[in-house]
Structures
1.
Amino acid sequence: MGVGGVLGDRDVGGVAEDVIEDVVGFPLGRHDDLRALLGDGPAGLTLEQPLAPQQVIIAGERAGDVSEHEYLAKTGMRRYGVDDLERVLDGLRGPVYVHIDLDVLEPAVFGATCYPEPNGAQPQRLVDLVSQVDDIIGAAITEHAPSSDDVNPGEAETIRLLGAALMR
């Protein structure tokens, strides 16, 4: 993972832009917020010092419309699909902000997400990958959307393990 960037509904929040070396996002959804982080958005919604595309890594990409993919390709940011997820670690240096949209996971195993997309990563694979990221200064885990108050114990354990990997 890299930069403390974000994707989907990624949000760097209070993390100072000048502190972030890399942002890693495990989405994928609409990228209006990512565009704002890169300085491409309405006045007042963009950072005073936008992130450079080289600071953002998208991992687990497998959805999105043509215009979204064209925009991301044009930026030159690093993007990896589920098959080459581990490449996120190549050249990654901190400090790092990690944003995880849980819809990066395979919905047959982790289905309580807002935008389930087939052929996602297996939960343990993502936990193992996040465990290898050093110098994490901030993180978000988003897109958990159970349909009732009865949370799936396996999904709850995945979130717990991801949280532990981020906090180590």
2.
Amino acid sequence: MDRKISIIVPVYNAENTLERCVSALIGQTYQNIEIILVNDGSKDRSLEICQNFAERDSRICVIDKPNGGVSSARNAGLDVASGEFIMFCDSDDWAETDWCEELISHYEENCLVMCGCYVEGEQKFVPHEIHSVNGCTRYKSKEFFELKLSSFNAPWNKIYSTPVLWENHLHFNEMLTNGEDYLFNLQYLTCISGDILYLDKCVFHYEWPREGSLSKLVPDGYLEQCCLLSNRVLELIKELGFDSENGYRQLMTEFYNEFQKITISVLKNDNLSVKEKLGKLKVIMSTAEYQRCAAKAYISTNPIYSYLCQQKNGVGLWLWHQIQK
């Protein structure tokens, strides 16, 4: 199989990791690739590095655009991709030399093929979600979804059919700064009828934690994003038939954790008065999306805390936070 793969790399202020990332792509054993480097308004030397690579390898093209976020950058790459397949790589990650070859060699029409990865951090390699010694494990989509593996969420450990993406007008939601990958993958599943093929081999390196990770930061407008994402995901889950009772409750727990990030950020914000904190908590807890998640989620092993959350008791949560300080 020698069909072209387009590899899309969103780049933003990545001068310290970009060389490693692109060098790994250039060195792929599967050589029928195009590498689309999308400079998303970087303020460092990233664009210069991209252009230098493009001068050295004709398979590399560079898009230079104003900053619009990672989804905007990936979409810009999708719009110009000429390959029959699409793969994604973030500029602070890197791939093993057989990353492309392993994924495309296992590709089947109407299936989603994905691989294992190494999570990089604290100067050690961590094998991530490998299921057997070698080979490729086949799952029905619903069966795989119920495993709740975090590797489903990402786009960089998968190979996508370009015709499937184009025929169904699939792009990343640029209104989201978290969960856009997960949503994209669920949408892709609604467009194919086959299985999920999981390569029991790690051929990708994912850098974690990332600078500015949303595990630490809650951006402006995050409440609206959580509401939008939860509604859209629930629509897709129902369409795919993935809405078993246990699976639904786990999903509600995952979304509740995101709402909880917002409530905690409000409670810990020393720039807000008590009155302002209670007002913001009321807004959060009044949303239908929060209430839906709180009613079903596994919130805490502490029954009092869980009760306060489920009853939308902002005053109680504020007092709880004061006691826990």
3.
Amino acid sequence: MASTSDTSNKTGSSKEEKELRFTAQKKKRLETLLKEKAAREKEIERLLSAQKAEDRKKDTRKKVLAGACFLHALEKGTIPEELAKKIFHDGLTKDRDRQMFPDVFPDLTPEK
């Protein structure tokens, strides 16, 4: 009878070992997947940040070019001075921004 008991213990032990190995493999795979997920999320965040920076850069360039075109048209007389003054008064609401154009409009003073 001792041999039957020994056999069932060996079988049970073997089954437990397999379950433990299987659980350890699952845990290791899960850890690997979580690390990969974190790395991908970091890469996604980096790419989104780079895209936002590129978009801001393009937006700034558009504004600079639009301003250059506006000033060029103003210098050429294509835009009437009164219209230009209205555009500046309506568009520039901060004192520090208005003070940037004393050479274009000497009478343009910051509103108080």
4.
Amino acid sequence: MIRRLLICALVMLGPLGLGLIAPAMAASERGLLRDTVAGERIILAQARNVKSVPRSHGPTTREVIAYPSNEKPGTILISNGKRELLVVLPGGKAARYDISVGRDGFTWTGTTYVGRKAKWPEWRPPAEMRKRDPSLPDMVPSGPYNPLGARALYLYSNGGDTLYRIHGTNNAPSIGNFETSGCFRLTNADVMELFENVPVGTKVIVKE
């Protein structure tokens, strides 16, 4: 325990601390101490370079707006151009959320539905995406570095997975941009709220 405290102190003091203590030690002990202190400094440097874990789910952008619609309440309407997601509410209103959409060449339109949902999902890059970027892994486990964030709604069509998602993100400042590969990205705070209120089978209409 004492040796450990001494090493920690030397790491904090740097060369000055080692210069003060080392002369009183045997040569073999000095060499061992120098190697140990150097190792501790490497570990500390590596720890400082680790990507920080997000401490927030990001802002909530949900707002209720006037929105007369012929779609039944609960239907999700997505606008690529406005970068917004609407959930139709009764009484001519809708809940609106800020989103990120597909970058140039990756936007799409059509009618789908929520085929399944997942909390803290794994991410498995589609084959086409991995072909564009061979550095992508087969799978990214759930957690703070997963690009799907805290929740995912999987969009289906005619019984099959479209490979597009409505999902969260651990990078909240990216919301409101054109930068996905066709998925629709919300803050984790927004997608967690949406997840609880959107059942499997919900109709999703994607427009320009």
